[in-house]
Each structure stands twice: as structure tokens, then as C-alpha cells.
Amino acid sequence: MNEKNLHGSIFKKLREERGYKLKDVAGDVISTRTLMRFETDETSISIAVFEKLLENCGIEFLDYLVYYYDNANIETSEFSKKINEYLQSGSPSKIINECKKELKKKNIELSKRLDILSAIQAVGWKEDRELFDNNKRIIREIIESTNKLGWNEMSGLKFLIYSASREEYSVEYIDRIIEECLQNIPVRNYLNQYVGGAYCNLLISSLAFLSRNGYYELVEKRCKEAIELFDGQPLLIEKMNYYADVMSILAIAYLRQNKKEGIALANKVLKYKNIVAEITDDAYYKRLRDIVYKSFCEANKTGIDIEF
To answer: Longest Cα pair distance anywhere in the chain, in angstroms?
Structure first.
């Protein structure tokens, strides 16, 4: 079920585009023969050696990663492009049929499985779930088979936890995920900004799980920790959006418990959402504001009207 390692062949393409010869790139790092085998994906090399090869090509590691994903995921990108077109045109039946067709293939890459999972959640599909539930099960098995939270693992967990019940994940497991997110969100350098953002998305999904399943004391504690953490992260990408999302979760937890401080917090969040909607004049942000307002009203047990 592992995605094919294409680093060698992608590196060869990059090397040739930049006009470097095998012997010049290999230098005194590895033999030309070993480099040839690596470029045909016959063998692997250590990260330390690979970084030296990139240095000999005059390219930074981050630039290589961008190049790699631009060239290695052509099939997945085409699938994602098609799904996005269907989402924009409002064609859920076409999305479902396209996803079913992909899930019937063999050796599906994790990245494509994640695209399918996110698409199904986006359209809120509830019927004929066998293929899609099996896809969720396989994604969960892949994630649980590794001891690390890589980019795909974080994306997969975010989607899985987003709609999970307390029967699917224990509160102890979710809290461990939250703790790992809080430890890894702080931005230490410009590369880490994007990793921090991925952890923020997983954090928000996990906090929403706690609130949705009634773990109010814990979600209040963790939301306050997250807000305090955001305060000290001026370089965090999309910080204000993450801030608003966490405050929304905290407001809902208050409102469900008939705590009046939830009203004030909900009003603050809605004022922010409304300002964004008015400034952008974008239908998406207006719809998002309305969804948040509806969620606050549904959770509100205080008897006090929410105004903004």
C-alpha cells in the first residue's frame, strides 16, 4: 500500500533540466554507478547523502520538495482537479461516481485515498457507504502502522477525527494528538511555518471532537492552552483564522453547558467572521459566517440571543 518512491527519477529529471552531468553531481559524495542506480529508483540513499547531491545541483531542499510534488503526483493532481471542478459546479453524483471508480482500482496511493475522503466529507454523502467506509478503515490502518505523524498522516487524521464518534477514538488518544500538536505548532524557522499550519488543522479537528462528544472540561483546558500558544506565534501562517476556529470551539462548549461567557465569545467570533465576509465580499466567507452563526444558535442553551 506504500506510495512508490520516485525520488531518484525525479532527481534525474531535475539534474538534466539544470544541465549537470552525473559525475559532477556525484562528485566525492557517491560513485557515479550508485547515482545511476538511484536515478532509476533501483536503490535508496541516506538523507544526508541526498542533501549533498542537491547542494551539488545548487538547489535547496524545500525547492526540491516543491519540484518533486509538482512532478510526482501527476495522476493524483488530475484526479483532484476533476473533483474540484465537480465541487465548484455542484455535482455530487459525479464526485461519488469518480471516487467509486478510483476506489475499485488496485494499489491506490494514500494521497489519493485522502483526496477521496475529503471529497466525500465535503459533499456530506451518507448513502451506499461500503467503499467509502472501507477507504476510511484502510487510511486509519496505514496511519496506525507508523509511529510518526508525517504530512499525509496529519491530513488523514484530521479528516478521520473530524466526523468521528467517541466509540471510534478514545479521549486519551485524542488528547495525545492534541499534546503533540501543541508541541509542534511553534514556528522555529520559515520551513516550519507550513508544518505548524498542518498541526493547527489537526489540533482544531481534535478539539472539535472533544466538544462534539461532551468532553467539556478537557476541551476548555486545551482551547485555552492553544489560544495562549497562538499569542506567542507572530509568524504562524493564517494565525487569525486558527485563533477564530479555536475560539468558536470554546464558545460552543460554553453554550452547550449554559455558560453565559459563551455568548460574549460567540459574538466576538461572529464579528470577526462578518468583517472578513464584508471586506472580501466573497460568497464563501459569507456562507462560512452563516454556518458558524447557525452552529452557535444550535448549541446555545443560555436563553440569551446571540448578536453581532
So the answer is: 75
